[in-house]
Amino acid sequence: MSQIKPLKQLWLHPLGHGSLLALVSLLAGCESVSVGGEAIALTTFTAPPPSAQPYGVEGTLTEQELTALVHLSFPQSYGAISSRLGFPAKRDAAADYYQIEGTNNWVAVWYDGAIALATALAILEGRTMKQRRLGAIALTTLLILPALPSREATAQGAAAPAAVQSCLTNVYCTAALVVISGITYWSVTQNGETQYFPSEEGEYLEDPEGATEDWEERIWAGDANEAARRCRDFAFNNHVIYRGVEQIRGRAWRCKVRTYRS
Amino acid sequence: MKFLTKFILVYPLGQLPPDVKLEDIPDDVDVNATQFEDYIFQFSNTPPVIGDKHDLNSNGWIVSQIHSYQSSSTTPGPVQTVFTAVCSQDGAIPQRNNWDGNDPILYVSSLTNGKLALNDDGTARFGLVENIVNIPFNEPFEDWELKYCQSFDPAERIAVQGFSQIILCWCREPALVA
Question: Which of A176, A226, B141, B143 is most solvent-facing, going by the fewest CB within 10 Å?
Fold first, then answer.
């Protein structure tokens, strides 16, 4: 399964909350930005790009399907998305594009890699909106989340579906799913302000790869290399994904793995 | 606090560190084939020097190999360089096997006053991940709150058991409520 590939050059010095939001606004208004000498491409669209090819099916989402999409936990497998939402109206190398039934709005489900990991979603309307690609989105969140009071984010969780759905029908609002540390957040940007809502609680696709759960196992190892090897072996033998190890005492290590709820 | 050094204390093959008792070792571990390592993180204003002697963990150690990681220009902070200082008891460069997988990312957390995140036994809490998103930014250590991170890239070719990147996360303790 593909992994998010953040852009490490974007790590920043502590900025005030307002400055971080300003950064997001800045990024959302450029074709590209140069950070640390590396240009980070942004994707611009008023509709699916010309490179997107018709898939040969209607490819629309009903209001119910849109609601389901809002509640999904990401990442998801391509199979899970396509079996739940059907095939898209258009597709290109980066995303599948669904038209919201009875509107001119489009939803893009972004994928990373050939295995098609669902990663981000954006609503498009009849004006130019720019949505950063996954890596940049994830990293932007990475930069912002530390500045956000986590308790506040948790408290807003219950309001997330309403806020996101409201945003999805608002031409002046942008919603995006961002994934950081295995937790998925909705980022809702309107009038230059961005709010974050955990999307951890929601309905999950009936797919073995539908949602993730993080697990820890204590292991014994004489050195870091052995710890990583043992943890990787543990992950392999139990058909889960190796995330990393953390030393918690001299020879005791926390083996972190990720599995999927079915 | 210009530098952070990770001292890697490599015990001779089969020698047990002071904290390890034979009966604590799992049955599936061949003690004679195990090369134990201890890790000690220290902030300093001077870089480590090859040949320097250090008394650490009840043993004398000699720095035999140093690798440096430079702070990324996009992540300014108080620490300029992170060093890994491989130490042995006789000063010789110890034989170490490379990672089985990709070169990992090393992460470690510290308060802005220089107090490192420490485990119950006094060892520094650090972790290894292959993807930066697996660093627990939301829960850096106990109730600490993340302020920002510095990123360090290898200054030279990545050495045996080197790191593709080192992330030093600066944290603060939550404010007391009156």
Answer: B143
Complex ipTM value: 0.94
Structural domain containing residue B34? 3-172
What tokens does B49 get?
A: 């020097």
Question: Distance between CA B27 and CA A193 in Å, rounded?
Answer: 57
Question: B13-48, pLDDT tens digit by residue?
Answer: 989 999 898 888 888 888 888 899 999 999 999 999
Q: Is B132 on the interface with A (CB under 8 A)?
A: yes
CB contact A242 to B (< 8 Å): yes
What is the DSSP annotation of A80-122?
Answer: HHHHHH---SEE-SSEEEEEETTSS-EEEEEEETTTTEEEEEE
In a domain, B178, yes or no: no
Note whether residue B122 is domain-resident.
Answer: yes
Q: Classify strands B3-10 and A252-261 as parallel, antiparallel or unpaired.
A: unpaired
Strand order in the sheet with A173-180: A173-180, A183-190, A193-198
**pLDDT tens sequence across A7-56:** 222 222 222 222 222 222 222 222 332 323 333 222 333 467 777 777 77
Q: Which secondary-structure segment (H or E) carries A70?
A: helix A63-71
Question: Rounded CA gap, B21 and B41, in Å?
Answer: 24
B121: chain A residues, CB-CB within 8 Å: 249-250
List, as one string, the DSSP characters of A126-146.
Answer: SB-EEEE-HHHHHHHHHHHGG
Our count of domains for chain B comes to 1
Rg (CA), chain A: 19
Q: Phi and psi (nearest 5°) for A158?
A: -65, -30
Residue to mutate among B39, B138, B143, B170, with most A CBs inside 10 A, is B138
Task: Classify residue B135: in a domain, yes or no.
Answer: yes
Domain presence at residue B81: yes
Task: Please indicate whether, in this complex, the C-beta atoms of A35 and B74 are within 8 angstroms of each other.
Answer: yes
